[in-house]
Each structure stands twice: as structure tokens, then as C-alpha cells.
Design goal:
Blueprint: H1 2-21, E1 23-29, E2 34-39, H2 42-46, H3 53-63, E3 68-73, E4 79-84, H4 85-89, H5 93-106, E5 115-119, H6 127-143, H7 148-158, H8 178-183, H9 198-224, H10 233-245, H11 247-254, H12 263-271, H13 280-303, E6 307-312
Antiparallel strand pairs: 1-2, 1-6, 3-4, 3-5
Helix pairs in contact: 3-13, 6-7, 7-13, 9-10, 9-11, 10-11, 10-12, 10-13
Amino acid sequence: MLKFILLQLFFIFHIQLLAQSTKVIDVYIEKDSANYLAVNFDELFSERWDTLPQVKFWRKVMDYGSDTCIINIAATREVLGFENVVKWVYQSEEEKQHYKDSVRAVHCLDSTTKIYVTFGKRDFYLIEETFPSISKAIELFQEFETDPWFAQAILLIESPGKMAYSNAGAYGPFQLMKSVARTHGLIVNREIDERKDFNKSAKAASSLISKVCIPEAKRILVKKGIVFSESDLWFKFLVLHIYHAGAGNVGGLINQLKEPKTGINLISWIWQNEWGGFKNASQNYSQVAIASLLGLHELIYDKCNGIYDCDAF
């Protein structure tokens, strides 16, 4: 009986925390003559996440089509120039290396400076087309008692309009691996793959976040002596990294910290460091999330006649 009462109190406290930090807004899209749900964006601006160079870089990537290559410095994401994709792809590896060497020379960069060539992704990050799915997922995450902020962020990154397998084998609107999907209640075999079912995939993703990713993020931070609140935006970005790369990789990375960091300082540090399976794609995950959230914010305020209502979840 005592255990049951404690669980009830924890549940109430958990929901109160979400209510304090997560607000769902009602947005009217004129061309659809419909209202959709979104999670508010205030902290992105009040905490200045929108000013970070990595975020600005990904906003640029989302503005360019797949025919454009963006030449940039890996560590800072400073844009150094642009190139045609066809011209770049058909170069030999030796020619590509010579091109990068010439870029370093022109910009007076050290020979060890890593240069990335990033393709434009305007055709992948279809934010407006994703909006109805986000709205639906927010309702589902509320039903599953998981912070709907995660539903919005993950769908913006993974773009549910592109129902494709990742290189690692993740699939569905929430890009779940087979083993993870099965662990969280989905049927995945030769005949059936419930990862493609939006509602079931959302339920599995919410279970993964609430039962694994959030507890693991807390454990990793406590172990390193880092003070946090579950309502902190930077904590949510850390959870996203665990969702994408796994707790083992994120925990191993955080263990490399020489002194505790929090907030933007910690997330920026994560973006520039590697450990185990936590490499470039993992570093990019929350960068893309922030850039996509800013894109959705722009869509709402510039194209959708603003916000009709704002209520705490």
C-alpha cells in the first residue's frame, strides 16, 4: 500500500513538473482551415540557443536544396563556401582532398582543421508537411504521460514524411531500431513491422523516453556530479542524444568531462567531442533539433496567422 501511494505521489509530481515547463499551443493554418498543436518555443530564444553557430549552420542547410554542397569547418560549422553536388560527387578521393587543402590555404587554416562538405537538405526537412503529424503525436504523448516536447523534436528531426530505413536499420516515424521497438511492445518480424504504425510507434517512443532515456540521463549526470532539472531545455537535448546514440555512448562521452558543465556549455561541448559510437551524426542530433524547432516557430509566426491559445500540459 505504501509503495502504491508513493508511486501515485511521484506520478502527480512528475505531471506537475511537465506542466511548469511544457506548454502546448493551438495554431491555425489558413490553407488547411485547421487547428494544430505545437509546443512553445520561448526558451530557445530566452536562453539564446538560436544564436549558436551550429544552429545557424543547420538552418542554412535546411534552406538549400540537394544540388548544393556547403563547405564548412567541422568544429565550428563556419561556412566557407558552396559547391555543386554533381561536381563534388564525381571527383576522385584525391581530388576531394586537394580541394579541401586548397580551402584551408585560402582561409589560412591549420592543416589539421577538419573540413566537412554537407549537402543541402531542404527536400528532407519538410517542416510544414510534418506539422499535422506533430500535432497528432503531441496528443498521443500527452495520453501516454510523456512530455510532448520530445514528440515534436523527434518528428522534426526524423521527418515522418520520409518513411525510410536509416543506415543502422531504424524505421518508422520515430526511427526505432528493431530490438528497441520489440522491448517497448511492438511486433517486428518478417511479416509484421509495427514501427510503421504511427500510433504504436509513438507509444513505443514515449515508453523509450520515459522509461529509459530520461532515467539514464539523470543517472549519467548524477554520476558526474552535474546539477540539473528535468524541466531544463539543455537536459531535454541530452535526452535526445541518448534517444539517438544510446546511454552507453552518451555516458562514456560525459565521463570524459574534466569538470562539470551544464546548460549550453555542456551541449556545445557534446557537439565537439566524440566517444565510442558517438560521432558526427550523434553530435548533429540536437543541433538539427534546434534548427528544426526554429523552422517550425518561423512557420507558425510567419505563415500560420499566429497562435490562438496557449495552455499548460
